[in-house]
Design brief:
The chain has 6 helices and no strands. It is mainly α. The chain starts with a helix and ends with a helix.
Length: 77
């Protein structure tokens, strides 16, 4: 997961963390753990978060699936 990009995007939209957490259905503490990389987001949370942050499909892949895409690229090469 690209935590730097995610955190920058959260800063850009200027919506409080507590509001974002509430909108995706988790506590503020859980959200902090997830944006620090200590816990993983569920698929349903990723979907809601992408809507809130207005992420494109490309950005969604960059933020949440970059490590998996890199692994696939390495296998293919």
């Amino acid at each position: 997961m690209n935590l730097e990009y995610l955190n920058n995007r959260i800063d850009e939209i200027k919506i409080p963390i507590t509001t974002i957490a509430k909108r995706i259905g988790i506590s503020r503490q859980s959200f902090y753990l997830k944006i620090k990389g200590e816990r993983e987001f569920k698929v349903s949370e990723v979907s809601k978060l992408c809507d809130i942050l207005r992420l494109t499909n490309k950005e969604k892949t960059l933020v949440f699936f970059a490590d998996r895409v890199d692994k696939i690229d390495n296998i293919a090469n």
